[in-house]
Amino acid sequence: MASIPSRPAVHGALPAEPTQASRFGKARSAQSSALLEDYVELISDLLNDGGEARPTDIARRLGVAHATAIKTIGRLKREGLAVAKPYRGVFLTEAGETLAARVRARHRVVVDLLLAVGVPLEAAEADAEGIEHHVSDVTLAAFATFLKRGG
Amino acid sequence: MASIPSRPAVHGALPAEPTQASRFGKARSAQSSALLEDYVELISDLLNDGGEARPTDIARRLGVAHATAIKTIGRLKREGLAVAKPYRGVFLTEAGETLAARVRARHRVVVDLLLAVGVPLEAAEADAEGIEHHVSDVTLAAFATFLKRGG
DNA sequence: CTCGGAATGTAGCCTTGGCTACATCTTCCG
DNA sequence: CGGAAGATGTAGCCAAGGCTACATTCCGAG
Predict the structure, then answer these.
(1) Smallest Cβ distance to B136: which of A21, A45, A127?
(2) What is the pTM of this model?
(3) FRET partner for B74 with CA separation of 20 to 30 A, picked from A6, A110, A115, B56?
(4) Nearest-CA residue to the C1' of C15?
(5) Over the stretch B114-142, which tens digit does the pLDDT of each residue have?
(6) Is A17 helix (H, G, I), strand (E, B) or coil?
């Protein structure tokens, strides 16, 4: 069908810009850190609030099996974000706390922005959970400015 | 992203609300359809623009190896979103076209909203790529309303 | 002090989405 | 017409993030 000719040099309005590829790549890698961010923030919440973060609690809050939570906690440890001795609960390292604070702040801004543009509370909370991991610093700053100015 | 941050936290044990778990679960499953959505939209773009969608182009645009693209195209076929005969390019089914249209519309609204709240173009385009997959219908509607209102 | 239930941890399996390496097909050009 | 080059497809590997099933540890009753 001549539909697969060797690649002609130019392709009209859709050049194969590396820009686009890099955007997708960024979105992919963001997704990979998302889980760690969720864990770290949740652990921080649990520690601040109840004094301890136990795998079972974490698992229940995240809606996964406890084995899954434990496995991910292992990854947290490997990445230097958390410490945990067997049967002794999970704690955050300096790096973990820092990350948690950043993530929590970002989450708040995202939710507030969604509310400011008229998203209902329930949807705002729910969608923010997924959205926040893809909000870059630049975008976050813009959100903050928008909120300060008008919201 | 533990969702209790913006409000005064309950002092005492955090309740193990199923709400939170379901939010995380939703974010997780959204992430799973995200890839398919990206592929479908890109294929639609390529078809509309150049008349054909070839695995190599798709791979380059997404920034992945061609083998990866081919594997995912296989998944698209399994899910009834695309058709492809070996060495003959990829085409969308009715369902695929429908999905593509929906995804494209959503993408536009998300970018427009980001721009409307002051996010620079580059960041808006880049972040939208990740954000759009987590924007629920309710939130999308709110975005549209905000934009129409002259946001 | 012992025992049983709950919490914790381990092992092994699955799918997704990447990759590289290699095999095969098409097309185009000499 | 016959290759060679490039596109396409296949195979096999890896890590992440789920799960279930089973093993171990802890702790509070009794």
Answers:
(1) A127
(2) 0.88
(3) A6
(4) B32
(5) 999 999 999 999 999 999 999 999 999 99
(6) coil
